[in-house]
Design goal:
This is histidine kinase. The chain is an alpha+beta fold. It folds into 2 domains: 1-111; 153-302, Histidine kinase-like ATPase, C-terminal domain (Heat Shock Protein 90). The chain has helices at 2-21, 28-106, 113-146, 157-173, 195-212, 257-262, 270-280; strands at residues 153-156, 178-183, 190-193, 218-226, 229-235, 284-289, 295-302. It is extended.
Length: 303
Amino acid sequence: MGLTFFTIFRYERDKIFANILNTSALSTDAQKIISQELGSQIDTLEIRIYIAVMIFVMISASFFIGLILHNINQILKRQRRFIANASHELQTPLSIIKTSTEVALLDKESLTKEGAIKILENSVHETDRLSLIIKNMLYLSTVERNLKKLPMAPINIEEVVQDIIERCQLLSRQKNINIIYDNQTNNQVEINANKVAIEQVLMNLLKNAIFHSPVGKSITLTLTIAKRNVHIAVRDHGPGIDWWEQKKIFEPFYKGAAAAESGAIKSGLGLTIVQEIMLQHGGRVMVKSRPGHGATFSILLPI
């Protein structure tokens, strides 16, 4: 590109010289002096322009290289944080199982039947938690690597929503929670998506809503169409989420205050999986909440 620029530059320079020297008012000697002087000045200008262009190119290259290195560094930091958090989450249930078993063995002479049952129940609880963490880690890895390669096909989103609500009814009945379905579409909305992945998204959102809702309350799932997007919102009446936590809850293994206090089996990867699936589908997930007023999780999927 630089060679073409300077070729044109020299061509235009020679045209200017010809116009200046093409006059009968100048003697031959004067023409030579003018030609040499202008040529020297233009050659110097050429060099300066070339140097300026090279400096600009080097500065631009340095900027973009720095940006790339920064992005790589951020990715490595996230990976290291993920590995550290995963190690901690996997180690915790193993430590609890090991400690409780060792205590039982050391005190086996005085261990009662009720005490043994309690230890076994705790071990089962921690084993379930460990299994859930591993399962979700494997699923998240699959989503991140292969979702674009998975088959996408037209699906009736209204049918998928109804199916997931039915599958969550048993869980909701255990807390006497009523799932209210507000369908504001014509029942025939089709989107191009991976059905299994979208089912996972809706299942995670509904399970979270049930988990955080008090006994006897209701959950509302709303299905609408907005600006060529399917909009699905799940609203609960739980404790709500502080504004400063609303971005963190999508980070791997992050557990909000309510989840941490409950002691329930949670992998800390559910919303991370939801966000990743939405990104892969060209959609997004949003949360609207304030403490004491529940939370509404919404997803947007392009039609």
